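User: For documentation purposes, I need each entry recorded in a consistent format: the amino acid sequence on its own, followed directly by the corresponding structure tokens. There are two entries in this batch. Please keep commentary to a minimum and don't merge the entries.

Assistant: Recorded as requested. Entry 1:
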Amino acid sequence: LRLQPNITLFETTPDKYSSTIGNYDLTVFDGTMPLHPPSGSILFVDPPDGTYAFGTSGKQTGVSHISKGTDPFNLLTNVDLSNIHVIHDSHQLQPALWAQTVLAATETPLLIAGENNNRRIAALGFDLHASDLPLQPAFPILMHNLMNWFLPPSVPEDVPLMPGVPLTVQIWPGADHVTITGPDKQVTTVGPPFPVTPYTKTDSVGLYHVKQTVHGRILDGAFAINLFNAGQSRLAPARSLPIVHSTNVTSNGNAVPRQLREIWPWIAAFLLLVLCVEWWLFSRSYKIQTSLSRRADSRKLARGNFLQRASVKNAWVAAVQGRVQKCYTMIRKRAKKAVKQVKKYRVIQDSRGR
């Protein structure tokens, strides 16, 4: 019970319990029963032999087969009973006329529940410590369902909350006045009379506050209405169009057949064809540009090779010319030197001859 956020739990022992200790929404008696039970809702667990508000509890008997009984309060929703293997014995419960057998065995009812005089009462006829129920996932789910029945929220969890949809709030046992305050701060009384009338002012989106007067105490609750709708996320084509206040047109007494024709496949096929044509044009122009670029690259490469060859040839010619020029200059210098020596030799001979 401590795991549930909307519950404040108080514990006491049988010797310290008193019916005047406080006014609680729910009282759980585990293996004991006081002389003066409280006036609110009660959950009995392993009640001793005797007569109680739910009926009578007799001697313990063995339990063989577990099965579902009558469940008008949805206490066994999502509860898997196939994993419960051990329940040694249980008290022989005899429910009152207004109580229902929710969980039963071949020998005796195991769980009974019902409402009488604005009180909700349930009883488990066996000791939880003598079974493997608390060790199974079914146990917290069963306790959660019981708490939602004993202490109901303002709106059931499985009710869709959409604008404009009337809803009926859940009333606590013993409530004598119920009001709802909308987002526009307008207060509407839905009870009395009881059962309460459906609340129809749900056009506004926002938070709605519920106030219930139970035995002089005010209990607050709330629920929210928004624009989210599960149907808006269904993208599959609908078989029919929900048109408000519409009728089928008949001719000569025969109904005119109507059929929704989807055109999106043709649009998708046309767009796919356009993409294919665009891809073909693009690939063709790419091939042409590729061939042209390859030709241009080959021409540039040939021209580059020619220029490279020409540059190599010019360098070789320049080297040869340089060598020839160098040889010519050296030969010229030697010739001039030889001419000077011959002239000098003649001058010397002439001077001797004289």
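Entry 2:
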Amino acid sequence: MPPMPYRGYNAPHALTEGNQRFPDEQHLRFAAAQGRALVTHNFADYAGLHLSFIQRGEHHAGIILVPVRPLSELLPCLCRHLDTVSPAQQQDNLLWA
């Protein structure tokens, strides 16, 4: 089933994509292949993956790190980020929302 847009953002989840068992690097590659930034709570692993990609000259569409929060707090915070940071600014960057 395609993801439901939220405030105009089309944001699939690993569960809806059937990717819940993918290792972290495969999640990042999947998102990159679709031109999508990846949103995660997993600071340590994705910070390391970001560095690995940069060191190897590989590209991704951005990694957005978010703290663990209730969804009612997380969505407005994430939307503020997406409303102010363009996809071009996210490209190959590790960002905090």
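Summary note for entry 2:
DSSP finds five helices and three strands in the chain.
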